[in-house]
UniProtKB/TrEMBL annotation:
All residue ranges annotated as the Anti-proliferative protein domain in the record: 52-72, 98-117
InterPro entries: Anti_prolifrtn (IPR002087), BTG (IPR033332), BTG-like_sf (IPR036054)
Record family assignment: Belongs to the BTG family.
GO CC list: cytoplasm; nucleus
GO BP terms in the entry: negative regulation of cell population proliferation
Domain of life: Eukaryota
Gene field: Btg2
Stated name of the protein: BTG2 protein
Length: 162
């Protein structure tokens, strides 16, 4: 299996931010060893890279946002459960370790998350990008979820240290 680095190398920081965030959630519960976290992180990074391979559009960052969205809402995201199975974590264990409502958006130039259906959207990673004006009026996965809200959300920046 060759590690070919083509035009996909540009999604490395976004995937690293997403993997670091999910691994950090598992780490805070203290039930998973550092060695298991390393294996989980590697498996998740590989799975996301493969999953996003043909759905990454730096020139149109919101295109494919719904496809790239990682979601836990009474159903575990299959990409997370597959990576967790590499370290022997069962679905019931995952449900205990991770929030029951989690949305993680992995888009070119921005990775953000929300815990709970009514939680604030918090930015994990942001890179400066020349955003084309055409993308501003689009209804993204994130914007659609914001439509039914009565109060504006506050954005917080959370850093995940490894």
């Amino acid at each position: 299996q060759s590690q070919r680095r083509g035009p996909r190398a540009d999604m490395v920081p976004e995937i690293a931010a997403a993997v670091g965030f999910v691994s950090g959630l598992l780490r805070t519960r203290g039930c998973v060893s550092e060695q298991q976290l390393q294996v989980f992180s590697g498996a998740l990074r590989e799975a996301l890279t493969e999953h996003y391979k043909h759905h990454w559009f730096p020139e149109k960052p919101f295109k494919g946002s719904g496809y790239r969205c990682i979601r836990i809402n009474h159903r575990m995201d299959p990409i997370i459960s597959k990576a967790a199975s590499q370290i022997g974590l069962s679905l019931p264990q995952l449900y205990q370790l991770l929030p029951s409502e989690l949305t993680l958006w992995v888009d070119p130039y921005e990775v953000s998350y929300r815990i709970g259906e009514d939680g604030s959207i918090c930015v994990l990673y942001e890179a400066a990008a020349a955003k084309p004006p055409s993308s501003y009026g689009m209804l993204t996965c994130k914007n659609q979820m914001m439509l039914g809200r009565t109060s504006p959300s506050k954005n917080y920046i959370m850093t995940v240290s490894s």
